[in-house]
Amino acid sequence: MTTLDRRHRWAIAGFVIVMAGGWAAPGQAADKTVYRCGQTYQQVPCGPATAASASAINTQDTRTADQRADAKAAVTADKRRAQSLAAERRERNKALQPQQAPMGLGARVADEPSHHAASSPTSGHSKKRKKKKEPEPERYVPPPKPPAG
Fold it and tell me: Bias category Pro residues: which stretches (predicted)?
């Protein structure tokens, strides 16, 4: 995950917390009225330009205590099931054997850890490794032909 992704997630989380502030404190939410002015929502009545399309929105949670408890139980069950499925997937993936590449192609498996340590700092220059010379494969040499005679 990149730094930008983390910042983006924190920004969204902060926005959700601020926007849900009225619902988080039921005593305070009852005192506030939200107005829909065109395509926006605000806590003050609309100006004269949008007064025709303005309407007050009921922000009260109209569910019963049983309905809220059922919804909370469903969310908890969904989370448990998601964790269970993720664990099963990880076990299945762990059990899979990576496919072997044909001889000489030198394919690398993506899940294998790299030989470069992520924590070891480099100066920006990569060190070239000397390639080991592989012995030449034995070649077929036909036996000498008998002299024509």
Answer: 140-149
The number of beta carbons lying within 10 Å of the beta carbon of residue 100 is 9
Rounded CA-CA distance 21/12 in Å is: 14
pLDDT at position 67 is 95
C-beta of residue 34 within 8 angstroms of C-beta of residue 43: yes
pTM (2 d.p.): 0.34
C-alpha dihedral sign at 59, 65, 67, 70: positive
Torsion sign, CA atoms 102, 107, 113, 116? positive
Q: What does the pLDDT average to over 22-38?
A: 63
Cα dist. 106→52, 113, 142 in Å? 71, 16, 31
Read off the pLDDT of each residue in 22-43 and give the average, rounded to a whole number: 68
DSSP class per residue in 80-93: HHHHHHHHHHHHHH
- Each domain of the chain, given as residue ranges in start order, spans 63-94
What does residue 8 show for φ and ψ, rounded to 5 degrees?
-60, -45
What are the start-end ranges of the H helices in the chain?
3-19, 21-24, 26-29, 65-95
